[in-house]
Amino acid sequence: MRTLARRLLPKLLAGLIMIWAVATFTFFLVHALPGNPGDAAYENFILQGMSPVQAQAKVSAVFGFTSHDPLLVQYRDYIWKLLQGNLGQSISYSGVPVSHVLRSAAPWTVFPALAGLIIAFAVGVSGGVVAAVKRASRWGKSLSMSGSIIAGVPVFVIALLLDFLFHTEWHLLPYGDTSDVTLDPGWNGPYIWSVIQHAVMPVATYALLGYGTWLLTMKSSVVSVLGDDFILAAELRGLPERTRLRYVSRNAILPLFTVFALSMGYLVGGSVLVEDVFDYPGLGNILLQAIGARDYPLMTGAFLIITVAILVANIAADLFYALIDPRVRR
Amino acid sequence: MRTWRVLTRKPGRVVGLAILVVFTLLAIFGPFLHSGQLAVDPDDVYAGPSARHLLGTDFAGSDVLQEIITGARYVLETAALSALFTAVIGTGVGLLAGYHRGPTDSALMRLTDFVLTIPGLPLLIVLSTIWSFGRPLEMALALGVTGWGGVARAVRSQTLSLRERGFLEAARGLGLSSRHVIVKELLPNLAPFVAMNMLLAVIAFIAAEVALFFLGVVPFSSSNWGVMLNQAVFSGGAMDSTSALSYLLSPLVCILLITVGIVLFLDAVDELFNPRLRERS
Amino acid sequence: MTDIAARADAPTAAAEVAVRDLTVCFPTDKGELAAVSHANLTLAAGRITGLVGESGSGKSTLALSLLGAVPTPGRVTGGEVSIAGVGDVTKLTKAKLRRLRGGHIGYVFQASQNSLNPLKTVGKQLLDLGRAHDVENLPDLVKRARELCELMGMDGARVLDSYQHQLSGGMRQRVGIVFALVLNAKVLVLDEPTTALDMLSQAAVLRIIARVHREIGLTTLIVTHDMGVVSELADRLAVMYGGRIVEDGPAEEVLGSPSHPYTKALINATARVTGEIGRARALPGRPPDLMSIPAEGCVFRERCAFAMEVCASVEPELARWRDERRRACHAEVETVTTEGVAAS
Q1: Under a CB-based contact definition with an 8 Å cutoff, are residues A213 and A317 in contact?
Q2: Deepest in the core among A19, B77, B78, C27, taking most CB within 10 A?
Q3: CB–CB of C107 and A230 under 8 A?
Q4: pLDDT tens track, chain A, 330 positions
């Protein structure tokens, strides 16, 4: 247990530093924007009839810092507010705290992405084992080729093709939003069914996105484990094929978990495209909207949260790996 | 003529190479075929394929095929440049980290981790608010600066394993300088590895730049596959009807073709650089 | 050919394992080439037989063929491997073959450093082994494993609870031997048991092998390129070159007065701990690999100091020239044994 903590602590620390670095980066990003938005907003508020003090307070509430203080003071305010979970207020959703907007959008990115990742992992890994064991046969080769090709197709191409086929051509699935707007949200049948229908294409896109990589990575891992001494030794000791396959799979899957975190990041990054194509209101979509509307607090908040989500996934994957590999647990 | 034999062993590889050659020729000579502005024909928007317009027309009545051909140059040029930038930065970082090890390695790897963890596409679109990188060189720079993480890591681990091989010790033992060792000994050994990585990276870069134009966050100056997709989906209503079908599918199919071409060709490159006992089937 | 083999076979002790006219081929660009060619070898019951040769001589392939485990794409194209009480290994069904491995013949892997699953404890893998061989009384199996561990100087309970990475190289080698014997195998095959071990561990492992062989009453085959190992343990010695057995007989006699040019060269090339380093003579040339084995005549002729014209066209047969000694050579015995060191 102690060694586990010892391994995790530096990773956690690195993660926190990363978050701080990203926060700082976005802070300076906003300051680098042409025409300081803080100033522009301030002018606006004055025009609307607020007193300078009021306007100042409003800008501070919206952006997290006041535009007239020296840079370092602004920075300190910003970080302080961040630590309290205050990401400022959205401009496009006037007055609504950024954290609220993000909180309602987050599940619609996290759950489809996670679902897609799990499906891609399960199918890809099983496929990888088959592709490795049968790699001399025609089936094995075509399986590998399918993985290669799908892995190379860009995410929005997958999304567009799926949308085109299932929505435009065959009219099987609906388009846009998380569910039919005419329905009452809640734990009722029609709503849940609608949610599922609307989620199929995004989830399928995420799944297809990852499938190729998992298949190829697992295949190469299995091929390398197949060459390991202990597998041959097991065969020479009379262990049946079933047992040997189990030995191979468990050993081959281990290194894949280090890739797990990276792929989560890839998926979340891709959410921008997936949600744009399907008009699905998740974090990626919010980020795009915010950029279009020049809603800087929302934009930086979304960017920050997306990065944090990836970092958390990284650390979780590291933890998990340490738990299942006895060589590390020592 | 081993190259030839390796290439022709599997028909897929020749197909891959052929596709790449066709697109490269398009990229180089395309704009000369249709010089000047694209012809605009307001009476004929979003038309389907016909004898006059082999792939139909777009939102302004311009010929889709023409746009595909002229657009090829931008796409391939930026992708190639991005791959170059990434290769240079990534190899530099990875080599230095793997060769010097110690604190240099730690510092460089921290930096690499940072670059790797930050999600690429969101970063690029956030970046687009302060820097509009629409021109090929700028786009390539933006993509290169954000995308070198993977190469750096891979090059570093290759360098570390090459270190184990001992010929580095021998070179140092002979009194050869660090610079000589790096340039004359390490780089040639790394080159095939980096080259293969770069071919794969081209696919990712094409996807990234098309994605950026598709999202509409980068200004565009001329016809461009990503812009075509953007127009087809959001203005042409391709998602709701089949009218702008060829306008939508043309760039998509081109991207798919290039992807498949690179994957197939890479198979040949892989065997060329890694000769190993062939599996007897 | 078969007559000579039969005559050469008149053994003094009952043969536990009899390899007759075995040929193992591998497909290559030049067609099917033989890694082992018409090999005749008998493992006398209760004895330790050493099989010596350089890398590429085919000795590992021969050893693996005792378990019917020639690595694909190689296959047995002729001959048989008879094991007392089991029959011809080359003709066994897959199920019988699986039971043979571990159950009747134990194979100790070359450099047993990584012959265990790194993710499971030794004990769990022992249970896997038992279940694979339909052992009904598993606790009994564990007890037997513990006893074998004690016999080899290890703490049984601790070993069974450990993961592979928690054991030293020497211990892993010994665990490999435990796994080979725990199911009461009658025949033990050790492939390069001391390569990859340091000198002290080597000595320890050799002592243990001798002890275990005695106490349990095994028939043992040790495959190695190390003459030192063979001189210490083996009762009988067979020498392989280019896929052929070129000489065999009682170890002491073969080592003391080798009757084949290759055996002689091997012995001369072995440096001794005592004595002048200059006494060791390297054999010129390189051992052949699968592709460079001469197709006609004696496989050793190009490096042989005693080569004659007939050697280039006619392959010598393995024939008995004295009670239990055989050799495959055209040169007269006296020429080889009395001549000095092989000319370099």
Answers
A1: no
A2: B78
A3: no
A4: 566 677 778 777 877 887 888 788 777 776 766 656 666 677 767 777 777 777 777 777 776 665 556 777 777 877 887 777 777 777 777 778 888 888 888 888 888 888 999 999 999 999 999 988 888 888 888 888 888 888 878 888 888 888 877 877 777 777 766 666 666 677 777 777 888 888 888 899 999 988 988 998 898 889 888 888 889 899 999 899 899 999 998 899 888 877 776 787 778 888 888 888 888 888 888 888 888 877 778 888 888 888 888 888 877 777 777 777 777 665
Is B70 contained in some domain? yes
3-state secondary structure string across chain B:
CHHHHHHHHCHHHHHHHHHHHHHHHHHHHHHHHCCCCCCCCHHHCCCCCCCCCCCCECCCCCEHHHHHHHHHHHHHHHHHHHHHHHHHHHHHHHHHHHHHCHHHHHHHHHHHHHHHHCCHHHHHHHHCCCCCCCCHHHHHHHHHHHHCHHHHHHHHHHHHHHHHCCHHHHHHHCCCCHHHHHHHHHHHHHHHHHHHHHHHHHHHHHHHHHHHHHHCCCCCCCCCHHHHHHHHHHHCCCCCCCCCHHHHHHHHHHHHHHHHHHHHHHHHHHHHHCCCCCCCC
Residue C60, CA distances (Å) to A196, C104, C249 in order: 60, 19, 20
One-letter identity of residue B158: Q
Q: Is B38 contained in some domain?
A: no
In CATH terms, is domain C1-104+185-339 a member of 3.40.50.300? yes
Amino acid at B73: R
Q: Taking Cα atoms as reference points, which of A146, A139, A141 lies closest to residue A123?
A: A146
Count of alpha carbons within 13 angstroms of residue A52, beta-carbon side: 2
Q: Model pTM?
A: 0.78
In a domain, B43, yes or no: no
Order of strands, edge to edge, in the sheet holding C325-327? C105-108, C187-191, C219-224, C48-52, C236-241, C244-250, C325-327, C319-322
- What distance in Å separates the CA atoms of residue C250 and residue C239, rounded to the nearest whole number? 12
Contact between B26 and B71 (Cβ < 8 Å): no
User: What CATH number does the domain containing B226 carry?
Assistant: 1.10.3720.10
* Chain C residues touching residue A327 (CB < 8 angstroms): 118, 163, 165
Q: Among all chains, which residue has been given the structure tokens 């610079």?
A: B179
Q: What are the structural domain ranges in chain C?
A: 1-104+185-339, 119-183
Greatest Cα pair distance, chain B, in angstroms, is 76
Angle between helices C94-103 and A229-236 (to 10 degrees): 100
Q: Do B252 and A161 touch (CB under 8 A)?
A: yes
Residue in A22, A33, A134, A164 to test binding to B, most B beta-carbons within 10 Å: A164
| Rounded Cα distance, C306 and C328, in Å | 13
Q: Which of A21, A137, A157 sits opposite B114 (nearest CB)?
A: A21
Give phi and psi for A151, each to the nearest 5.
-65, -25
Calpha distance A132→A221 (Å, rounded): 9
Q: Residue C69, SS3? A: coil
Half-sphere exposure of B23 (CA within 13 A, CB side): 27
Alpha-carbon span C22 to C26, nearest angstrom: 14
Range list of β-strands (E), C168-228: 187-191, 219-224
How many CB pairs below 8 A link A and B?
Answer: 120
- Range(s) of the domain holding residue B222: 2-33+56-278
Determine, yes or no, domain membership for B245: yes
Find the closest chain A residue to C97 by CA distance: A238
Counted residue by residue, chain A has a size of 330
Distance CA A305, CA A101 (A): 12
